[in-house]
Amino acid sequence: MIETKNATPPQPGKIRDLQLTDLLDFCKNNGFALAVWRQPGKEIQGIIDTGNTHCQEIDLESSEPGYLFHPFSDKKIKHFIRAQIRFTVSDGTVAFDPYNKQQHKDMLRKISSSDSSSGLDKKMMIFEDHPVEQEKPFIELVKKAIKEIRQGHFQKVVPSRIKAIRIEGFDLKTVFQRLIKNYPNAFVSATFVPEAGLWIGASPEILVNTEGKRIFQTVALAGTQSYDGSRSLQDIAWTQKEIEEQAYVSRYIINCFKKIRLREFDEIGPKTIIAGKLIHLKTTFRVDMEAVNFPQLGTVMMKLLHPTSAVCGMPLETASAWLEKNEGYDREFFSGFLGPVNLNENTNLYVNLRCMKLIEDKAWVYAGAGVTEDSHPEKEWMETSIKMNTLLDVIH
Ligand SMILES: C=C(O[C@@H]1C=C(C(=O)O)C=C[C@H]1O)C(=O)O
């Protein structure tokens, strides 16, 4: 069994139970990178990297085990957190490599004796603040998008916005526990990179999943309605706008398969799925990599897929240029992707949605909404507000 369970309460010089929050402080104070995550139905896992996390191109199949943290823009710095130190978390308590008692003891000793006041914060980048959230500019942005879609410039675009808030007494352990409880179907994650801040999220959207050398999976997720749990999923009706919006994402994925001449894939859906207080339409695409003799499919598709039309638009280049010109802020890691690579033979990358960035007592929450020619600007505004509540509901 994990040793920390029977440990004595905090006493000077003694090893005590280590909470997720202590571990984050330890990493901040030492300038280490940390990733903690929970895939749906799985245990909480985490890793620490004590070195430089900048990375260039990544090859998923041959990569060492770690965790990829990729920004929305391909031009920005990408991070790969190597699995130098591994741990699991149960009831908020950390256990280092459960199979290696000595490593566990050594880590606890190091952390207990580390000086929590020695500041990493010096290492942190200073971020610009963002203007106080405003409904009008977002609605104007959506109106502009609709106008340009009607003029035939593109078919779909996903404008987003950022909301700055202050948080007092933030406790990672509590927030993480609430997220895993409230969002059982989400990829819940906390990613800390000294120069990027702490990012926390509960994403409903897989970008690339590979299981061993055999199974590849991705999804087309779009269309949003609020959901209070009272209706059966079979009774949910979707409008033409939502069906079309999700179909663009499916078409985009199929076009990526076409580019690499991949014809054999299973397509399941679209089905209605629950993501907290929201529901979406989801189509799952599955490929048997052995049957199609394509062992590098994970890496190839990761590069082709991102950014999908669930977070950017259709056609990609026009929508992306429009966002860069009109959105008015830097998405940083929002709508990028993140997740474990080659850990236990699997790679599980998710789109970084329903997320926030935290630096000291400041937080920034992000959300976007798919706009087509049939969009209603006020509804898209509401949709981004409900999406932001995924995080706002658990931090207060
Ligand atoms: C852009 C976001 O979500 C994406 C956009 C959706 C939509 O437009 O309906 C739905 C799910 C996600 O693919 C977000 O959560 O910020």
TrEMBL record:
Annotated ranges, domain Chorismate-utilising enzyme C-terminal = 136-387
**Gene3D superfamilies under this entry?**
Anthranilate synthase
Protein's name in the database: Chorismate-binding protein
